[in-house]
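User: Can you fold this complex?
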Amino acid sequence: MSVSDNWLNKVNWTEDGLVPAIAQDADNGDVLMVAWMNREALKRTVETNEAVYWSRSRKKLWHKGEESGHVQKVKEIRLDCDEDVILLKVEQMGGISCHTGRHDCFFKKYENGQWVTTEPVLKDPAEIYRK
Amino acid sequence: MSVSDNWLNKVNWTEDGLVPAIAQDADNGDVLMVAWMNREALKRTVETNEAVYWSRSRKKLWHKGEESGHVQKVKEIRLDCDEDVILLKVEQMGGISCHTGRHDCFFKKYENGQWVTTEPVLKDPAEIYRK
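Assistant: Here's the predicted assembly.
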C-alpha cells in the first residue's frame, strides 16, 4: 500500500469493504442513483473520471455504462462527515441512469399510502442491454 | 399489521430492518446528509412531515432537530428502483444539517489525492447541542 493511498484509507469502509455512493447530476442536482464501491472501484473512478462501482449481485467491478453506453463523467467526488458515504457529481451520458430506462432511479413517489411511479421510461431496457 | 401498511412492506429493508435515506434540499438540490430509517421512523416521517431517522449508535428513533432545532420539513418522499434507498426532499430549518455545524455533511472534496474541507462551520456544535 503506497503513501498515495492514504485518501483511500480515510474512507470508513463497511466490514465487506464497501461504501455507498450517491450519483448526482452535476448540472441540475437531481439524485440519479445509489450504488456501492470498493477500494478498487473508487480508485478507478478517480483515475478515469468515470464512475466505477462494485456490483454486489455480480461480485465484480462495474464500469457504469459499459453495456448501455450510459457512462457517468465524474466532475467532483465528496465524502461525508462520517466518511462512510461518497457523493459523485456527474454528467450522465444519454440522460438515463436507471436500468429501467428512466432518467433516474427515484421514480417512485409516496402519495397517500402508495408508491406512485412518476417518471417515464425513456428507452426500452431491451434496447439498452442487448446481451 | 394493517392493510394501510402495504407501502411500508414494499421497502426492501436490510436484515437489520433498516433502509438508508438521503436528505436533499428541496429548493436547490443540495445533498444534505444520509441517515438510516426503520419502519417506525419512516412511518413517523410520513405522519409528521418531519424527518425521523433511526440512530444506529444510540439505537433509538431520532427526530432530526430534536436537540438542535434543525428540523427537516419533508416535501416529498421517493423510493428507488430496487426499493432499498429512500430520498427525502426537505426544507432544512436553520440551514444546517450536519452535526459539525455545517450546511451539509458532504464537505470533504477529493483533490489531488486528498480530502479537502471546503465548507465553513456556520455554528459551533457546542452552541447547537447544549446537553
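The first strand of chain A starts at residue 19 and ends at 25. Residues 6 and 43 of chain A are 12 Å apart (CA to CA).
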